[in-house]
Amino acid sequence: MKKLTAIILLSALFAAPAWAATKTATLSVPGMTCAACPITVKAALSRVTGVEGTRVNIDKREAIVTYDDAKTNVATLTKATKDAGYPSTVVR
Fold first, then answer.
1. SS3 letters for the chain?
2. Contact, 61 vs 90, CB < 8 A?
3. What is the CATH number of the domain that holds 36?
4. pLDDT in tens, the chain (92 residues)
5. What global pTM score does this model have?
6. Overall number of domains in the chain
7. Measured distance CA(76)–CA(11) in Å, rounded
8. How far does Cα 80 stand from its chain's mean position?
């Protein structure tokens, strides 16, 4: 019985990453007004653990972020842009 329990626990431990999903969030970043702004926003988002990719469009004033939802969340992404001086909100 102990071996069965250990096997189940180990299986769950190694399968846990499979529960994670790659998600995409679009953030509205209205404070981006110059050519350097997207560079700063992209750098801030790229430093967040779990972010897999970031595309920033200054014309639309938005950032599209692909991330691992087991490692980060939208609140952390918006905090990263705010801390960089560019408050953002999620586009629904």
1. CHHHHHHHHHHHHHHHHHHCCEEEEEEECCCCCCCCHHHHHHHHHHCCCCEEEEEEECCCCEEEEEEECCCCCHHHHHHHHHHCCCCCEECC
2. no
3. 3.30.70.100
4. 666 665 665 555 555 555 668 999 999 999 999 999 999 999 999 999 999 999 999 999 999 999 999 999 999 999 999 999 999 999 97
5. 0.78
6. 1
7. 30
8. 10
